[in-house]
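Backbones bend. Our protein:
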Amino acid sequence: MVHLFLCFEKKDMSIIINSRGKIYEKNIIKEKHLKKCCANCEFNMGVCAGGGKRLDNGEATYGMPIDETIEMFPNGCEGYGISLDAFIKEEKLNGR
């Protein structure tokens, strides 16, 4: 037997109606996130300690001054990981 579901959202609520007409409501929590950038990265040690690749010459970002990485990667690089301080700020923004 195949169950079909109809889902739609209204303000802060998700409504699900299954194939038998049963209605389920679920609160939607919209998470707040800090911008993904070198300033919030776990590899920010004043210089980059990550393993990304520079966009200008393809060399490693390791040891690059953070000011340069922020300019080169305004949205973080592929090696981005959130720092503990940024994670704590995000949790507080989300009421946890």
Q: What stands out?
A: Helices lie at 66-72, 84-93. The first strand starts at residue 5 and ends at 10. The beta strands are 5-10, 13-18, 23-27.
